[in-house]
Amino acid sequence: MTRKRFVAGNWKMNTNRASAVALAEGVAKLVPSGDVGGGAVDVGVAVPFVYIDAVGRAIAGSGVMLGAQDVYFEKDGAFTGEISIAMLVDLGVKFVLVGHSERRHVIGEKPDLLAKKAKAILDAGLILVHCVGEKLDERDANKTLDVVKAQLDELPATLADASKLVIAYEPVWAIGTGRNATDAQAQEVHAFIRGELSRRYGQAFAEAVRIQYGGSMKPENAAGLLAQPDVDGGLIGGAALKAESFLAIVRA
Ligand code: 13P
Questions:
Q1: Which of 25, 118, 131, 227 has its CA 20 to 30 A from that of 187?
Q2: Cα-flanking dihedrals φ and ψ of residue 78, to 5°?
Q3: Is the C-beta atom of 216 inside 6 A of ligand 1?
Q4: Cβ(217) to ligand 1 under 6 A?
Q5: What does the CA dihedral 56, 20, 168, 34 come to, rounded to 10 degrees?
Q6: CATH code, 51
Q7: Angle at alpha carbon of residue 200, lines to 194 and 205, rounded to 5°
Q8: Which of 97, 118, 146 is the C-terminal boundary of a domain?
Q9: Domain that includes residue 145, residue range
Q10: Is the pTM of this model over 0.90?
């Protein structure tokens, strides 16, 4: 089965208002229709909350999908500092990251919170990009697959629409380090993830879910990673902060 590739930039806590808009315009210019490579690639940007509105205007009419890096699961109310799904929808957001390693390991978000966020995003009909991945000590202790399996437990027990679920496999030791997983390391974990999805949600569902690789993906290594049968795209940090290198990965 052919899955439409999905390459997304995660801008993290970078850019300012002017540079965010300039970057968005640079990406939008080269993704005019959303049909890069004859409809083979979805392209998205996950933007700091405060610039989502400005970036949404900058990419309006292009094929670039607007995304957020996080969200809170409650609908509204006394949750000082938090952002609701309705607020994101209001600004045109189509996909939301949950469980990025920096949220898990730097901010300290726990699995039960991530599960609530994942469910709320899917219930709202948005695309969930659920991030999983092991730390270096976990890989060294041969616990990679156990860790990833436990993180997949944060997803709802039943799921119907595979087009709304994206898994991002991001080995923590590869994020921002310049040291990417090898093609074979990525493929091994991606195949495992697809197997787990198949066991939980059925084979047809699993075959339709996009699984992105993230962690020091750049123009020089993207083609090899993306040639792996279960690597369906990328979640790009540093290399997404320049339109040219981000688009070089999209072209790969
Ligand atoms: P880098 O591409 O900078 O390693 O970041 C990957 C990442 O965390 C994307 O979410």
A1: 118
A2: -85, 80
A3: yes
A4: yes
A5: 50
A6: 3.20.20.70
A7: 60
A8: 97
A9: 135-203
A10: yes
The yes-or-no verdict on residue 39 having pLDDT over 70 is no
Q: Calculate the CA 88 to chain-centre distance.
A: 16
Give the Å distance between the CA of 216 and the centre of ligand 1.
6
Q: Whose CA is nearest to atom 5 of ligand 1?
A: 237
Q: Is the pLDDT of residue 38 over 80?
A: no
Q: Does the pLDDT at position 155 exceed 90?
A: yes
**Token pair of 59, please?**
């990419």
The amino acid sitting at 3 is R
Q: How far is the CA of 76 from the centre of ligand 1 (A)?
A: 30
State residue 181 phi and psi, 5-degree precision. Answer: -65, 150
pLDDT(52) > 60: yes
DSSP state of 33: S
What distances in angstroms separate CA 20 from CA 78, 155, 173, 177, one per listed residue? 30, 31, 27, 23
Segment 188-241, tens digit of pLDDT = 999 999 999 999 999 999 999 999 999 999 999 999 999 999 999 999 999 999
Opening angle at CA 131, ends 130 and 136, nearest 5: 160
